[in-house]
Amino acid sequence: MSEDRDTRLDPRTIAFCQTLSGFKGIGTYEWVVxxxxxxxxxxxxxxxxxxxxxxxxxxxxxxVHPEDRMRVEAETSAFMAEGETYEHEFRIVRPNGEVRxxxxxxxxxxxxxxxxxxxRGLNVDITDxxxxxxxxxxxxxxxxxxxxxxxxxxxxxxxxxxxxxRRSVWSAGLYNLLGLEQAQPASDQLFFEHVHPDDADxxxxxxxxxxxARTNFDEVFRVLRSDGEARIVAGKGRVVEEIDGEPTRMIGxxxxxxxxxxxxxxxxxLMQEVNHRxxxxxxxxxxxxxxxxxxxxxxxxxxxxxxxxxxxAAQDMLVHNKWTGVDVEALVRSQLAHLKDAIGxxxxxxxxxxxxxxxxxxxxxxxxxxxxxxxxxxxxLSNEKGDVSIDWRLETDLLGQQEFVISWIEKDGPPVKExxxxxxxxxxxxxxxxxxxxxxxxxxxxxxxxxxxLRCSDGCLxxxxxx
Length: 467
Description:
Blueprint: H1 2-7, H2 11-19, E1 26-32, E2 37-40, H3 42-48, H4 57-61, H5 66-81, E3 85-93, E4 99-110, E5 116-125, H6 127-152, E6 157-162, E7 167-170, H7 172-178, H8 188-193, H9 197-213, E8 217-224, E9 230-243, E10 246-256, H10 258-295, H11 300-320, E11 326-327, H12 328-335, E12 347-350, E13 355-356, H13 358-377, E14 387-396, E15 402-411, H14 424-436, E16 440-446, E17 449-457, E18 461-463
Parallel strand pairs: 12-14
Antiparallel strand pairs: 1-2, 1-5, 3-4, 4-5, 6-7, 6-10, 8-9, 9-10, 11-13, 13-18, 14-15, 15-17, 16-17
Helix pairs in contact: 6-10, 10-11, 11-13, 12-13, 13-14
């Protein structure tokens, strides 16, 4: 029955579902609204933990978490009322009771009268992403708890300032905060001497304003301890005594919030980075599909699947390394996995141990894949005697700056001719790598064999080779 339904789908939808097969964490679907007919890809069924797709939309709705179900139904109705695209997030409950979080986005196809004919989209399992968010928030709460504990045990810097004589009394905590000996006479002047130079002027102004206006002093600023270490400090204070309308006494506290601020900044950067990579991955898949179809409509699925698997191989390595980068040799070998029997016989790999950054790894991996594919079809690996050398190194340019250089050199293959038109493979090995690595790319179609060479600053590397 499901096979009959699949054959009735728009061919473009079937092709899209097939090309995404095996791409981890992404599943595709189509809902033919007029017939209330639903078709899911195997990957989507895996996300939902089922062996077959629901027959109708109601079956999907029942899989949505009860707490999210009403919202999802309302949002879906709003999407169908107007617009051509949709995007939202919700939780699902698998048959075994496991709760997962998915991000749903897609396109709406309408009839001439504006009614919805079908909705095509994809779900991405973002459970792990949301878990990281919770962990980050938990770390922030732990940091705040530590701060509260510091208050409770009086591990804060308290001060009491005589505004007429400009004399201060400091607690031991304030001396410790600034890294000073308690034998030093306390004063507001001594304190401001340890405020970071970039913060000192505006902080003095704000302090004076709070005294004149009898408003609470509540600021965050940096201090420099006596050992030169910079710390982030929260300062609070207020005027508590006056004589004849003139403020005479001000009290307050200062406490170190460096760890809390750093954890918050790290959390913000993490969320921005995860969202950035998620959007980039979807955009890259769309770009590969579009360019492959434009440059070679015949054999689209075979070419597109190969490119997606090349991208997936690089993605798996990045995930395994927690997005800290990829070893260049491991990246090259992963893209030559289908030619592993030729490595050491007709394919020669050499270079120092270096790690390349995440964005650069994806582009370089696809370039190696395209080069190997072309070599097998038209180049030195298409006959019985040709070979390929792949090597990388660090060089020093005329200005003394180091550069990362990687080369792909073919020889003893059929005579090489420059292609008559620019296909997607040429875009990958030239334009895409040039943009992703901020590099210069040189391609020579020499009769004796193709030579491809990429050169970029070593800023694209995480670790340089030992010398």
